[in-house]
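dumping this here so i dont lose it
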């Protein structure tokens, strides 16, 4: 994937934008649990390569919406077979029963994390 200019992290971001539509950088940081600076650097690189674009918000000039371009979609389409091959190489060793067990364990841990993770105070921003 890296030889085609798309790391796994970059591909995940492009796929998220393709599925969800335009997002603000702060939303991207929240989704991927990254610092705003890390997201800004990533977006800068993707924008330079024509894979995403920043568009101003019509109501708040401080806000920029990040959306995927047609070139970004092309990169996803080109790297998707490689991503699926990687997933198969990793998870292909598991039987269907083991995959079901693994999925159940992950869901259980995610639910528990939601229970113990501190909730932000009303009116504050999660970080």
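and the seq i came up w/
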């Amino acid at each position: 994937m890296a030889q085609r200019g798309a790391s796994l992290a970059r591909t995940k971001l492009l796929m998220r934008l393709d599925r969800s539509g335009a997002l603000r950088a702060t939303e991207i940081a929240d989704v991927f649990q990254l610092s705003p600076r890390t997201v800004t650097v990533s977006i800068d690189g993707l924008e330079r390569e024509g894979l995403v674009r920043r568009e101003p918000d019509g109501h708040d000039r401080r806000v920029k919406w990040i959306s995927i371009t047609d070139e970004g979609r092309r990169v996803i389409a080109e790297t998707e077979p490689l991503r699926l091959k990687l997933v198969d190489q990793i998870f292909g060793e598991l039987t269907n029963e083991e995959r079901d067990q693994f999925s159940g364990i992950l869901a259980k841990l995610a639910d528990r994390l939601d229970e113990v993770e501190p909730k932000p105070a009303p009116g504050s921003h999660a970080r």
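Residues 22 and 29 are 14 Å apart (CA to CA).
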